[in-house]
Amino acid sequence: MDKRTFRKQLAGLLSFFCLLVILVFASCVSTQDSLSAVRSRGVLLVGATGDYRPMSYLEPETGRYVGFDAALAGDLSESLGVRLEFVPTSWPTLMDDTLAGKFDLAVCGITITSARKELALMSEGYLGNGKTVLCRAEDADKYISLESINRPEVRVMENPGGLNEKFARANLSRANLMIHPVNEEIPGLVASGRADVMITEILEAEYYASQDPRLAAPLLKEPFTRGQLGFLLPPGSEPLLEYVNGFIEKERESGRLDELGEIYLRGRRP
Fold first, then answer.
1. Which of 32, 34, 45, 70 has the fewest CB within 10 Å, making it most exposed?
2. How confident is the prediction for the chain on average, in pLDDT?
3. pLDDT digits over 101-153, tens only?
4. Distance (Å, whole) CA 148 – CA 169
C-alpha cells in the first residue's frame, strides 16, 4: 500500500471515528439534559387533555386547569423552581404529542400500561384507579357486570382514543357503542337518558355520582380492572423521570397526596 492510499484510508477512519464520537456525545447530552433543560428554560411544559374531572379539567370561564393532577403538576413545578405551563393535548393524540416532544411530561389521569411503557416513559404510580361503570341511579342494580352491559339494547358512550374506548371495544362487542367527542359531557348525557352506561375510571365515576343525584357508580369497590395513574414522559427523559419519581415519593410521605385526595376526590378540606 502506498502512502497516498494509506493517508486516505486513515483520514476516512478518523472522520468515521469523529462522527461516531459526536453521535454518542449528542445522544448522551439529549438523555442527560431533560431535567436541566426544564430548569434552564424556567418553565415546565405539562400536557393535559383538560376534560377529566376531578383530575385535570380546563375551566372554560377562567381558562385555568383545576383538579388533583393540575395541583400535583403545580407542586412539581414549584419543587423544580420553575413556572408551570399547560399544553393542550387529547386522548387520541396523547402518545403522538408525547413522542413529538410537545411537552416535558403529561399528567391528566393517565393509566400506567405496558403498551405506553413500550413507546415512552412512565413514572411510578401515585394514585390507584380502575375501570368501572357510571349509569343512572335508577339502573344501579341493573348494570352490575360486563355480561349485563354487553347487550345490543345497552347504549355505552365513550370518548374517542382513550383506554375507556379500548376497554369497551374489547369487552362489550355486543353493546351499542356510541363515541362522543367531549368526555366531560358524557356523564350528563347518561343522566339525561341519551346513553345508558359510561365505562370510566373509579375516580371519574365516583366524582360524577357524588355531583349528580341522577347518576350512580355501583361497582366502585368491585371495578373491572385495577391500575395506577402515572406521569407520561417522552423517551430520553430519564433524568426528569428520576426526579419525578423522587417527587412522588416525597408527596406521598408528606401526606400531600392524601390532602389532594380530600380536596379534589372527596370535596372537602382535610
1. 32
2. 90
3. 999 999 999 999 999 999 999 999 999 999 999 999 999 999 999 999 999 99
4. 15
* Domains and their CATH numbers in the chain: 34-128+229-265 (3.40.190.10), 131-216 (3.40.190.10)
Amino acid in position 15: S
Q: What sections of the chain are H helices per DSSP? A: 3-32, 34-41, 68-80, 94-99, 114-119, 146-149, 163-171, 186-191, 202-211, 238-254, 256-260
Amino acid 59: pLDDT:
95
* Cβ contact 105:231 at 8 Å: yes
CB 165 within 8 A of CB 159: yes
3-state secondary structure of 156: strand
* Residue whose entry in the numeric block shows the C-alpha cell 386522548: 91
The answer to whether the bond into 235 is cis (omega within 30° of 0) is no
d(CA 49, CA 52): 7
- Answer for the pair 34, 236: CB distance below 8 angstroms, yes or no: yes
Give the C-alpha separation, 43 to 85, whole Å.
7
Query: Distance (Å, rounded) from C-alpha 91 to C-alpha 79?
Result: 27
Most distant CA pair in the chain, distance:
93
Output phi, psi for 257, to 5 deg.
Answer: -60, -40
The set of residues, in sequence order, having a beta carbon less than 8 Å from that of 70 and lying 6+ positions away, is 48, 55, 56, 57, 86
- The answer to whether the CB of 126 falls within 8 A of the CB of 248 is yes
Contact between 158 and 164 under an 8 Å Cβ cutoff? The reply is yes
